[in-house]
Amino acid sequence: MKLRDIAEALGCRLVGDGEVEIAGVAGMEHAGPGHLTFLANPKYAAKVATTCASAVVLSFNANSFNRNAIVVENPHLAFAKLLTLFTTRPRVPRGIMKGAFVGEDVVIGKDVSIFPGTVVGDGVRIGDRVTLHPNVTLYEGVVLGDDVTLHAGVSVREGCRIGNRVILHNGTVIGSDGFGYAPEGQSWFKIPQIGTVIIEDDVEIGANAAVDRAAMETTHIGRGTKIDNLVQVAHNCVIGEDCVIVGQAGIAGSARLGRHVTIGGQVGIVNHVSIGDEAMISVQSCVIGNVAAGEVLSGSPAIPHHARLKSAAVFPHLPEMRKSLARLETRMSIVEEELRG
Amino acid sequence: MKLRDIAEALGCRLVGDGEVEIAGVAGMEHAGPGHLTFLANPKYAAKVATTCASAVVLSFNANSFNRNAIVVENPHLAFAKLLTLFTTRPRVPRGIMKGAFVGEDVVIGKDVSIFPGTVVGDGVRIGDRVTLHPNVTLYEGVVLGDDVTLHAGVSVREGCRIGNRVILHNGTVIGSDGFGYAPEGQSWFKIPQIGTVIIEDDVEIGANAAVDRAAMETTHIGRGTKIDNLVQVAHNCVIGEDCVIVGQAGIAGSARLGRHVTIGGQVGIVNHVSIGDEAMISVQSCVIGNVAAGEVLSGSPAIPHHARLKSAAVFPHLPEMRKSLARLETRMSIVEEELRG
Amino acid sequence: MKLRDIAEALGCRLVGDGEVEIAGVAGMEHAGPGHLTFLANPKYAAKVATTCASAVVLSFNANSFNRNAIVVENPHLAFAKLLTLFTTRPRVPRGIMKGAFVGEDVVIGKDVSIFPGTVVGDGVRIGDRVTLHPNVTLYEGVVLGDDVTLHAGVSVREGCRIGNRVILHNGTVIGSDGFGYAPEGQSWFKIPQIGTVIIEDDVEIGANAAVDRAAMETTHIGRGTKIDNLVQVAHNCVIGEDCVIVGQAGIAGSARLGRHVTIGGQVGIVNHVSIGDEAMISVQSCVIGNVAAGEVLSGSPAIPHHARLKSAAVFPHLPEMRKSLARLETRMSIVEEELRG
After folding, report:
1. Residues of chain C with pLDDT under 50
2. CA–CA distance, B203 with B244 (Å, rounded to integer)
């Protein structure tokens, strides 16, 4: 592909020689001749001058050092799109392969791939261009939209619904029973979890995550939300659109997240908490109360991020503060005595 | 079912019209005519007056607002039992289905369902009315009791024993090797993990959890204990009866939990620690020493919960405390000088 | 086996009767006649006198109480080797079993075992004496070395490479997509994850862990590193040799660990951080900056372990410190007034 054609495809400005042939894309330090690379972080601007790449994607205000360049508003996004353009292989549907098991009353769209070891339960509905990698299990009555990809080992439990273009990575479980018991003396009586899970369009969930079905209604993951590996979403949670939930975070039962909320890695959100749009919770924090829209919290328990940074900076000084306090008490007593004695 | 019959089945007092027909159960806000709902949290008592449900399960001391009601000591438990009554479908055993693989010298009870993709190793013993969903793996010599349900993707490793009525959700692993190595210079020599896991009756474990086999003896999960998703139980742990271990908690090697212990989400328990009966550990805490029966701890490292709440409330004030301390030092020096100078 | 032969096999000194027959090994408290046991922890030295075992492995400086003994420099290591000697059953290769699915252009070494339900993708290369337990999935182009063991439910994604003698426990995922998105307005545009994962020789990874493929280059796990259950290793991480990463720890993107680093359970390492050789990070800590070789850190955020212990000991005293500070302010004002007023 010529650089000129790429610039046109992205609708971006070209600087330098548009005739240069681009065969692939690569990171700044690994790129060679024929590669297109990109400058996302201005910190590395000087590398543009010396990269071996044939051309660079960079932002309007970056120095192109007389290199061939595509100038864009958002180089990170442009690069992601280029990478998609260059690396997406055409999908060859493989049909229902030998060794896959399909139950009764199943409706399957066109151009699907269902690999060996995958088991499709009775009454399941599967859209067009769906890929079910090996050893996936769809329980009774599951509904999958179009262009869904479920990786090996994924389980989707009874009646859960998955939207279009959803990707679930390996081992992830959708619709396991919520963790609900009523105390009966010293024992725990299981509360049937008869609700479901709805996962909207364009959601992606990493490996070995778990999204529990609701006790009675619906656990809901909003359109475009991205969830990392080993995340737990408990029963009855309602997660808004375009949220980002980083690895090993845990969202307890009936928590509600607004739109475009960011949850850091290993964060815990306790049950019944409500988190407003655009809020951000820092890594390893624990949210124990409602969070207003736009708030940035950190710590366990979580407090405003700036306050937490300041207090954390004081924390290592606690022993000296305690000693100093004790010395002040003594000095004060002496002063008081001298003054009044 | 008539409301009167339900009241009789539960052995509870009826208020209002016993002839009303109940077709199902639902949460207070989603219930409609023909539904029975329940009031678990007194906070929502006013909703009893306005719910569309045909009847309400509530506790002795709650106002029934002249609605049809079943009056019980523990409405949460009564509702769980009703839900079970109304929602449990009769189990239809499906036998050993095509696509399931059963090894040699396997003993299988009556009325089982073994789904496609499930592999039963040599010498396994399976009780009556067991359901093995698709893609389950039982290694050699595993023993399952009666009425066990293993969901898709579960692995039970060599020789582990699972009691009656145990439920393991999708992807959970029982009996993986404990994490044990002896240092050999800079490297790590694997210590064979030749112990086993015993899971007693009525245990339920969530999705993608892991219970390691003991190094030499037994990792033990006591009767009636409930374990949530993504929990780690390390080798040689002994967990008592009726414990509750919430999502993403981790119990390190050789820890011992008494009876009816509650472990919050994302809690860490370090190795060789002993936790007494009825103790409660709050979300995201880290327990680094023994815990007496009945103690309630929180924080990392964990301290008594009340003390922790009070200290956490002071934490955001640390910067101002440090400044105030510095000012006091200065004021003190000035006072001392004035007094003595 | 005679005790004398065992001592010779280990190249160690024998004390007492070399003719005694050893039939097996067991822990100090569970050992009986015919057993060899070991004293690893000097705390339990007195038990050597009373154990029912026929012989004890102990260190040079321990009292043998006139028991038959093998005296070694490192009893823990010696015992691990003995346990391996006594408990390793000869591996019987089972070939490609009925119910396993093997794709096209696959190269398979000698003496392998490939169990039912396992799916080997096109172009995969498998070394000698490899065991693939049931329901394993190898995607296209995966390469496995010799003597590799993949337990049931493991997934290895497109093109990832696994060295010799690697053990992956059940449900672990190698090569799932890294968590990378470019913001596009309010939405997230998926950045193709076109890199790979390389796992070097002698690595062992526990159950339900996840190692993401790199965005463009390689996520790398160094030789001899041991990783526990439910650990997350994000894209582009480079982990050195002989590291130990305990359960539920999470290593964020592009983090670098040196050689022989110890990461405690539930630790979080934020992205792009570099951790020097031999550093140790204590349980549940959060590392937010680079760590020098040999440092021992703890806390969230992590600070030197000793400083953290001291500050954590002061933490419960914060409320009384705050009160005392307030009282001092008052006393100071009174003194100042008395002095100057």
Report:
1. none
2. 10
Determine contact, residues A3/A24, Cβ cutoff 8 Å.
no
Q: For domain B3-87, give the CATH number.
A: 3.40.1390.10
The residues, any chain, with a CB within 8 Å of residue B98's CB and separated by 6 or more, are: A101, B116
Q: Note the pLDDT of residue A85.
A: 86
Q: Does B309 touch chain C (CB under 8 A)?
A: no
- Report the mean per-residue pLDDT for chain A: 95
- As a whole number of angstroms, the distance between CA A304 and CA C87 comes to 55
Which of the 8 DSSP states describes residue B45? Answer: T
**Separation between Cα atoms, residue B7 and residue B55, nearest integer Å:** 11
Residues 189-208 of chain A with CB under 8 A from chain C are: 202, 204, 206-208
- Whole-angstrom Cα distance, residue B163 to residue B156? 13
Whether the link from the prior residue into A192 is cis, omega within 30° of 0, is no
| pTM assigned to the model | 0.96
Q: Which of A133, A220, A235, A260 is catalytic?
A: A235
Question: How many residues does the structure list for chain B?
Answer: 341
The CATH class, in words, for B96-306 is: mainly beta
Domain C95-306 has CATH 2.160.10.10: yes
Catalytic residue among B235, B260, B305, B306: B235
What ipTM did this prediction achieve? 0.94
Which of A137, A307, A315 is facing B135, going by the closest CB pair?
A137
Interface of C with A in 322-341 (CB under 8 A): 324-325, 328, 331-332, 335, 338-339
The answer to whether B19 faces chain C, any CB pair under 8 Å, is no
- CA A192 to chain CA centroid, Å, is 30
For chain A, the structural domain boundaries read: 3-87, 95-306
Under a CB-based contact definition with an 8 Å cutoff, are residues A135 and C137 in contact? Answer: yes
